[in-house]
Protein 1
Amino acid sequence: MKIAAVEAIPFAIPYTKPLKFASGEVHSADHVLVRVHTDEGIVGVAEAPPRPYTYGETQDGIIAVIRQIFAPQLVGLTLTEREVVTARLARTVGNPTAKAAVDMAIWDALGRSLDVSVNALLGGYTDRMRVSHMLGFDSPEKMVAEAERIVDRYGIRTFKVKVGRRPVELDTAVVRALRGHFGDTIELYVDGNRGWTAAESLRAMKEMADLDLLFAEELCPADDVLGRRWLVGHLDVPFIADESVPTPADVTREVIGGSATAISIKTARTGFTGSRRVHHLAEGLGLEVVIGNQIDGQIGTACAVSFGAAFELTTRRAGELSNFLDMSDDLLTVPLRIRDGELHVPPGPGLGIEIDPDKLDRYRADR
Ligand code: MUC
Ligand code: MG
């Protein structure tokens, strides 16, 4: 079965609650739906979420690179030639979410053609993950109220608190207020999106030393090479590399250089093929991993949970699988549901999801 066409369709779905963090903010899911068509009529899907302030990709740029550069190199390959796909995409440096979406849509098509789930193809460790929710910038009172809503409504008990690029005292007050309100009934960690210097990061982490944080993520830029190494050496919690590790080679560089001690695996960034490489590398090095979220919609979240639930290592920690809760709608016929703090892998072949044609019609941004 051969790849006959690769489609890239822009869509836009407003957020009911915009997410704000140190490197940007998101008010609308201006994503790209990627569909891989085979010559036998099977269609695999995935979504690419552009994050211009992180990787420089835009919705228009993703569409252009898929249509003009990637699709012509992939048409005619079979669904099982995924390493050929990977090698061809790797000729282009960058464009991580465009590459990842193409890769995942091919895996979805493969699963559908074999009548097997992608989760089973990848490893099939379990069918669900515990969920971690991201709390964007707001006042301490509003962030505690939001966490309370998420606990009550979805049973989620792990929170990643966005910090950085605003007064350090405000960020630490948020984390202190959350711990004060919930006591030891929730897990907490912080993500700076490169918003602090190394010295600010250490000051903040010392100030929060009594708050029992699980991790610190990307508090300062990886390009502050010695500063970040110094910071990581002074911390007594794992330091997660996120946007500094868009490829397995970056993981090696950051970890061997002493600038990271844990890894965020984002299927939106490394697809299934690259995420598997990152997973195996992390396992071999004995690193903690967290399934991260590139502020994915439900298609991307189905990808993340299919991958995260496929391996033992990725299920040890709650996965970031809930950003879609802040969106006003989505494209799936059967929406994802988080219950009792868990998200199940959608049942069925491939990713187990279907695109609702009416919803796609309503939200597509190319007409
Ligand atoms: C995260 O973990 O950083 C925000 C920016 C980005 O690139 O990803 C999100 C979430
Ligand atoms: Mg992050």
Protein 2
Amino acid sequence: MNSGFENSSVQNGFDALTTSLRKLFGETIYRRWFVQMNGTVSEAADGSKNISLGLPTRFMRDWVESHFGEEIRYAWKNLSNNGQVSFSVVSPLVKAGTAAPKNIESPEVKSSAAPADDFYSGFSTEINPHLTFDNFIVGSANELAYAAAKRAADSDTASFNPLFLCGGVGLGKTHLMQSIAWQIKNKNPEKKIVYLSAEKFMYHFVRALRQKDTMRFKEVFNSIDILIVDDIQFISGKDNTQEEFFHALNTMLSRGKQLVLSADKAPQELDRIEERLKSRLSGGLVIALNPIDFNLRLGILQAKTKKIGIELPEKVLEFLAYKITSNVRELEGALNRIIAYTQLARKTVSLEMAQEVLKDVLRSCEKKITIDEIQKRVAEHYKIKISDMQSARRARAVARPRQVAMYLAKQLTPRSLPEIGRRFGDRDHTTVIHAVRKIEELSSSDTAFKDDVELLLRLLKANISEDLRPEAA
Ligand code: ADP
Ligand code: MG
């Protein structure tokens, strides 16, 4: 699950949003603009949750949308699994006029400077000022990525180009990339930084095509100092965009300007991306962000609570760090829930309350391991083809891994022996029994083998992929 409110009442989505707006903009702005706002959440066909925000007057609606729209959309996207935001006038909630503000200071956080050229400014409005190096907690899972990102932000010449960050969702890729943008911006305000998602890249490109203005699009890459493109897996299969992206990369590289890119997988593993683009992408430094361990999770929770200025019992934090292992986004979602609860209940939570508050979050975290996954992991581990899990081949090199997979399927899934057999090339349940016995026997006589099987078991249980290890140092 992706947000901290999905399983609870719809209203919690709006509460979660206002909580984060309050944190983002501070009390004054919050009270002036957001206390009179209401929100209705609806579910789109694709499962994302859209929110319609109502403000009492047209003036307020326009003001909120134009001044805070970007941040609100950003916050909502994070909370709702990419949901959309719309603004409307919902009157009369309050008497018109009482709310009309005068002399409003602009919010202390704004997206990065907007140059006169709207084309260029369109590229750089996605920077979230909270995603900085200072707010990034470093541990063994991400220290390489952190160091490389720092280096890219600090050095005047591009030292490894492109810097490519890869790893699963919620592990800090966007955070690090935005930190780079932010740091460069603070140190050298004159530098032209472009940060955008691959989807935005595509959007700008398609728009340029439509307006017959691709020259101008190409020129951007001749003038900027650093190009940061997030989530480039999104351009898979989009041939025109890939072509243009390839040119943009080449332009930047030949000018010796830093490129920072990210994707959910390493370049070579990206689907439907041209070979020449893949090789460009992996031509610099590829670094993986790994799943975070307990200590890092705890460290992140401690840092976040400290920053917000809220104190939670150490036991509760440890409980969260122990239970929510998937990624930092979910960890944050759970923490926000606890914080919201603390504020509503006006008392600190006990461990029991935390368990209760997070009941549904925890339930969805309990991993269900599938036979497909087991087959995939085991095949990867022993470097055989997945199809060999079902094949009739009896050579030891494939038969043994197949037996290991059957054994693991018995240990880790509630499937019956005949069911397991069927999934392994329609084998009989007696074959599965034989495999289980064989693995038990080998484990008791061969400790190296036993360690190997146990490692697989642990990795599967913890949902840790072996291919998430750093690629290069
Ligand atoms: P990704 O882009 O890899 O999917 P994000 O960078 O969006 O992940 O991270 C998800 C959330 O977790 C963000 O709110 C981010 O600030 C937070 N986060 C991730 N890693 C860390 C870290 N090491 N320290 C602090 N916060 C982190
Ligand atoms: Mg991201």
